[in-house]
Write a structure and sequence with these properties.
This protein folds into two domains: 76 residues, Glutaredoxin; 113 residues, Glutathione S-transferase Yfyf (Class Pi), Chain A, domain 2 (Up-down Bundle), CATH 1.20.1050.10. Strands 2-1-3-4 form a four-stranded mixed sheet, with helices on one face. The protein is globular and about 45 Å long. With 207 residues, the protein is an alpha+beta fold. The longest helix has 29 residues. Helices cover 54% and strands 8% of the residues. InterPro entries: Glutathione-S-Trfase_C-like, Glutathione-S-Trfase_C_sf, Glutathione_S-Trfase, Glutathione_S-Trfase_N, GST_C, Thioredoxin-like_sf. This is Glutathione S-transferase, C-terminal domain protein.
């Protein structure tokens, strides 16, 4: 059986859990990470030298990096519904997944650590303001895309891109700050909330 190593509160672990839910894929999960087993232990570092969660074990196959993991699961166990086989359709899904990982994630890092994790080292007002402005601007890019599709990120069909982006929207809404009025993003959040997997692993109050 597929094994997922990582605590369920981690946004990156939740990507994997939600994807398994969408695929109807059974799994076993072990708690690793802050508050649980240490990811800098030799046993864990042998699986992931970055000491980060999640890691999966699928038989003798070990994989880390959450977006790579969910791509693998959708390809190995899906029917093309979440991650299409056609090159151009697949590229559009992966484009938005990569944008989430590189552009959107970088925009919120300072603000999230300051406002949610309350790290005392993150107390630079100018850096916080810049991060909040960048975060809002990037969510605005998603707003434009969702306003055009009127449904999910790539159109009227839920795809793998909606997993990291849906969790990112949850993080944005759950962070205590002033939120810009993005009606398409709000409608998207409610649309995702009709999916049992999102209710279990996304809209749960955890940023």
């Amino acid at each position: 059986m597929l094994k997922i190593l990582g605590k369920a509160s981690s946004i990156n672990v939740r990507k994997v859990l939600w994807t398994c839910d969408e695929l109807g894929l059974p799994f076993e999960r072990e708690d690793w990470g802050s508050g649980f087993r240490a990811t800098d232990s030799p046993d864990y570092l042998a699986l992931n030298p970055n000491a980060m969660v999640p890691v999966i074990r699928d038989g003798d196959f070990v994989l880390w990096e959450s977006n790579a993991i969910i791509r693998y699961l959708a390809t190995a166990y899906g029917d093309g519904r979440l991650l299409p086989a056609a090159p151009r359709e697949r590229a559009r899904v992966e484009q938005w997944m990569d944008w989430q990982a590189t552009e959107l994630n970088n925009s919120w890092r300072y603000a999230f650590v300051a406002l949610v994790r309350k790290n005392p080292d993150y107390n630079d007002a100018a850096a916080l303001a810049a991060s909040l402005a960048s975060w809002s601007r990037h969510i605005g890019i998603l707003e434009q895309q969702l306003a055009a599709t009127s449904a999910y990120v790539l159109g009227d069909r839920f795809t793998l891109a909606d997993v990291p982006l849906g969790l990112s929207v949850n993080r944005w809404l759950m962070t205590p700050m002033q939120h810009a009025d993005y009606p398409a993003v709000s409608a998207y959040f409610e649309r995702l909330s009709l999916r049992p997997g999102f209710l279990r692993h996304g809209r749960n109050g955890l940023p």
